[in-house]
Every structure is written in C-alpha cells, then in structure tokens.
Write a structure and sequence with these properties.
With 92 residues, this protein is an alpha+beta fold. Helices cover 29% and strands 14% of the residues. The chain has a single domain, classed as Phenylalanyl-tRNA Synthetase, Chain B, domain 1 (2-Layer Sandwich). The model has no long low-confidence stretch (mean pLDDT 94).
C-alpha cells in the first residue's frame, strides 16, 4: 500500500518552488487548508487522513498534512496536480 503525503505548502500560491510549492502558479491557491485538501482528495477518489499536528520541514508554522491512502494507480505528482485543480474548484 502506497501512502502519499500532501502538505498545504505544495499548493500555496504565496510560496515559490524553492519554498515548497509543487504546482504551477496558475493552479495554486492562497492559504490552502488541510480540510480543503482532504475534501479534494476524496473528490479525486482516494482515502484521506488529516494529521493536524504535523509540520512541513521548510515551514515554521504547523499547518498539518493529509495522507492519501490507496493511491497505487497514480504517481504523487498526478495526485498533487489533481488535488490542486479540485481545491481551485472548491474555492470558486
């Protein structure tokens, strides 16, 4: 079983690529939350587990992370790109 981790920094439009953003600036959103990310992961079709007490190593604030379970059929990059698209849709 592959378990992927998605941090809010991966989708944060206020961060640069070197600061941890993994999606294009056009797909990123301002201040994504773990709740939005988990909802988007479920919309994509995977199981999501929120861990609120975790911190991305490049950040000082604890914003949490989302574990993506049962994603054996997709790469991490595919999952992050799809989640970014859904978070953008949820914000509209």
């Amino acid at each position: 079983m592959v378990e992927n981790v998605i941090y809010p920094a991966y989708l944060d439009a206020s961060l640069s690529r070197s600061e941890g953003r993994r999606v294009a600036q056009s797909a990123a959103v301002e201040e994504p939350t773990v709740d939005e990310i988990a909802k988007a992961v479920q919309q994509v079709g995977y199981d999501a587990v929120i861990e609120r007490g975790k911190r991305y190593s490049r950040e000082f604030d604890t914003r949490g992370r989302v574990l993506v379970n049962n994603a054996d059929d997709a790469t991490k990059n595919d999952i992050v790109q799809a989640v970014a698209a859904y978070v953008g849709i949820l914000r509209d």
